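Example pasted here:
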Amino acid sequence: MRIKSLLAIAVILFCFLVTFAQTITPEDILSIRELSDVRHSPDGKQVAFVITEPATSNTQPRTSNIWTMPVDGSQSPRLLIPGMINAGSPRWSPDGKTLAFVSDHAQVYLLRAGESTAVQLTSVPGGVEDFEWSPDSKMIAFVARDQPARDEQEKKAAGYDAVEVDRNLKYSRLWIASVSDRNALQVTKQDFEIYELAWSPKGDELALVVAPTPKAEDSLNLSLIVVNRSTGEVARTLSKLVNLTGALRWSPDGRLISFYEGPPTKEYAAWVSIVPAGGGPSRPFLKDYAGSVLRLEWMPDSKHLMAQSVEGTHQVLLTVDVETGNRSKITDVVHSQWNVGFSTNGNTTAYFSQSAGSPSDIWILKTDAPPRKITGLNPQTAGWKLGKLREVEWKNSKDGLLRRGVIITPPDYQPGRLYPTIVNTHPGDTAWWMGWHGSKWWDWGQLLASNGYVVFLPNTRGVTGEGPRMHQTIADWGGMAFQDLIDGVDYLVEQKIADPNRLGIGGWSNGGFMTEYAITHTTRFKAAVAQAGHSDFFSLYGASYLSSSLRISFGDSPHASRKGYDERSPIMSVRNCRTPTLLLHGELDSGVPVGQAYEFYAGLKDVGVEAELVVYPRERHNIQERGHQLDVQRRMLAWFDKHLK
């Protein structure tokens, strides 16, 4: 009888929650506390992590601080240092006695075990860009940038502040700080740009990923070198084929170094490779893996790597045998996009994961126990009307390529009933993953679903999660990628999920471009919202730091061969557009300058299309101020409601 009573109560509670759950609003989305940078203590007893709090003012960005808690979940998360403003990048010393972090003008601070006051370690003008502990816990290596010379400062103070492009370059330098006396010495004197660093286990050398200069055109011209810790001299160059940062790790036994390698052509392909630390040929061992490694760490035995990777629309934690490349899945990970991460000591792993009804929390995985969630940072989402997620598959009608994506159906979804459907195109090359689609101002999934829309998140070709070969097809965005998208829409229409007469499309960054390309190549969409989209690749080439990437995509400079640039530019086909379009853009966007939005807006007006352009002061490519993030979501929702309901 007791069991039946409990079941009855559970059913009543469920019905109550469904009945009184609230429709999600933009304000709800911005109430989410976000997690990042989880770090496991060496003794396996604690985790340190960063929580980014909701903004309290409409004119200010969010603030972030470091929290800690026991791995066993016996205590709630604790703010590391109350009153500290915008602290981040927690790093445990290898001996576990000190936690280093960055705060206040990007300087490194040290908090020793049992103490409540942090000590400032660095005082470098311009702040610290990256740092790592030495293996013996006695030093910290950090990267800091050259600052203007005295005569430059005096000229600027006198009003002579003209910027000479590509002259008086300010390089990043490697420094070493002693923890005991807090003295810091500049180690590298050579002119190169440091992107990544890793200590050797002996502490006598550091591996660096570097570019020749800080110029945008050199950002893809990366090399892996090893420098002497005392002199800063380059001891050896291990590879000139580094194609991505984020995988530079020195094995615990000192023999091997992992990194992301790519083709000499610098196309959009990268795989994990291993190179002998003393020199020799590199060895790719995940080149044929049909997934994308996002994070990796060496295991204590130096024979395996632990990796977090994307496989289609799903994520996994796995171990990889360095010798054979064989993979063993440890556990599935639920995540939507970005802010992924884990930290392990070999026996215990802390990582971020989501659930169907909640954003990211910290989970703990031990070798002798199943995964366990130890935080619950966003309990408010339990009262929200959430859509349901599932994966969908379809084929490209031209080449038969199997594509995958995610759809989110409204909370009250009824099979067979046609719903207004929004295609939410992905930003950049990051595929949509199964997870919580509602923590970001640009990820509109749950917001739209809760307000009655079917949301389609297609993984068009060129995305991560399908291996380096598929990633290389990034250059086909706007071509076969558009065909992938439109065939996915056809599939939803055939399945009687999407209403063909009420289709919308929208997205941010690359999603903005794909939106503009779609509405200039089909009239099927009845409403569009394009944020920070590239409308004219020719003008973008000369005004953005993306010129190197564009040369790779199109094979050359537009001044040598313009045809490909024009063929993929939505502005060249704007005369075909009939879709009411809302354009949103940051005024100070340097990656996709706001002129791209003005061009497209003028084109839409010239051909008589209903259009609105909204420009956000002070904002760059990533909208930061709460008031602007709210405005983006409100306008997006209102635009689709106006034209699709």
